[in-house]
């Protein structure tokens, strides 16, 4: 593979920054405390009004129809800073993705069953947020799309790879990966702390981020998003940072 595997999932780590990203594309077992501490204090200025105004605009566009509760978008975590795992640097930033041929890469190294199942549910053309995790300021930096649906992850059979799995068999592989391609950078960096503020407000008034897995299942490096969640988070790139 063109770079050290970045996604991993062993149970994962919450952003401790959040290491489950590439962990990047990966998921390790670590404490969620740091992530919670980093996002515990919502920035001033975000609250119910933002959600209500956004909802009103979306209802106007859709004639008042609410989107069905289905997952059609994703959030993929990856570590942008160097970290050695079994002697291999698992760093993989959005710049690393952009440097790949055709700005495309396989999302390998996931070793968490739920995250693997999410990979297997991904469909060609679906979009995902590229999320920098386990770093000084975690958050969303770009949008990618699925360009190849799930197929066996080759790293599970590579004894030199940090994510080698001696229990997996080629005739019945345990782990899967997909290929993703860079679409564009978000218009601005959308930090975890800002998304957290909206999540807390939505828990109170029923907004789309109230059950967002970024806060209910922090350790997962592969997370599904509803259309409403994706649209709301994407709308934040048009706002001035708090």
Q: List the quaternary state of the chains.
A: single chain
Q: Looking at the structure, what is the overall shape?
A: globular
Main pleated sheet: 6 strands, mixed
Which fold does the CATH topology of one domain refer to? ph1033 like fold
- CATH classification, class level of one domain: Alpha Beta
Distance N to C terminus = 39 Å
Radius of gyration: 17 Å
The stretches of 5 or more residues where confidence is low (pLDDT under 50) are 17-24, 26-49
User: How many strands appear in the DSSP assignment?
Assistant: 10
Give the strand order, joined by hyphens, for the main sheet: 6-9-8-7-3-10
The CATH homologous superfamily of one domain: ph1033 like domains
Instruction: Estimate what percentage of residues fall within beta strands.
Output: 15-25%
Q: So how many helices?
A: 7
> Which H/E pattern describes the elements?
EEHHEEEHEHEEEHHEH
User: Level of helix content?
Assistant: 25-40%
- Structural class of the secondary elements? alpha+beta
If you average the pLDDT, what whole number results? 83
Q: Which CATH-level-2 architecture of one domain?
A: Roll
């Amino acid at each position: 593979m063109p770079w050290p595997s970045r996604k991993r999932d062993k149970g994962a780590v919450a952003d401790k920054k959040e290491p489950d990203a590439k962990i990047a594309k990966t998921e390790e077992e670590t404490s969620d405390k740091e992530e919670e501490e980093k996002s515990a204090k919502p920035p001033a200025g975000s609250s119910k009004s933002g959600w209500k105004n956004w909802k009103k605009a979306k209802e106007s566009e859709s004639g008042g129809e609410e989107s069905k509760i289905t997952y059609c978008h994703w959030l993929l975590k990856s570590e942008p800073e160097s970290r050695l795992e079994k002697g291999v640097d698992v760093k993989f930033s959005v710049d690393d993705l952009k440097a790949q041929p055709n700005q495309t890469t396989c999302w390998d190294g996931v070793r968490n069953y739920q995250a693997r199942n999410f990979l297997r549910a991904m469909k060609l053309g679906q979009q995902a947020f590229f999320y920098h995790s386990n770093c000084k300021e975690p958050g969303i930096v770009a949008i990618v799309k699925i360009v190849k649906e799930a197929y066996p992850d080759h790293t599970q059979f590579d004894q030199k790879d940090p994510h080698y799995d001696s229990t997996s068999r080629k005739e019945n592989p345990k782990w899967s990966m997909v290929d993703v391609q860079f679409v564009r950078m978000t218009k601005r960096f959308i930090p975890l702390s800002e998304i957290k503020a909206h999540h807390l407000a939505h828990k109170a008034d029923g907004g789309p981020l109230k059950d967002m897995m970024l806060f209910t299942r922090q350790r997962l490096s592969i997370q599904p998003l509803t259309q409403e969640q994706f649209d709301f988070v994407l709308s934040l790139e048009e706002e001035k940072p708090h």
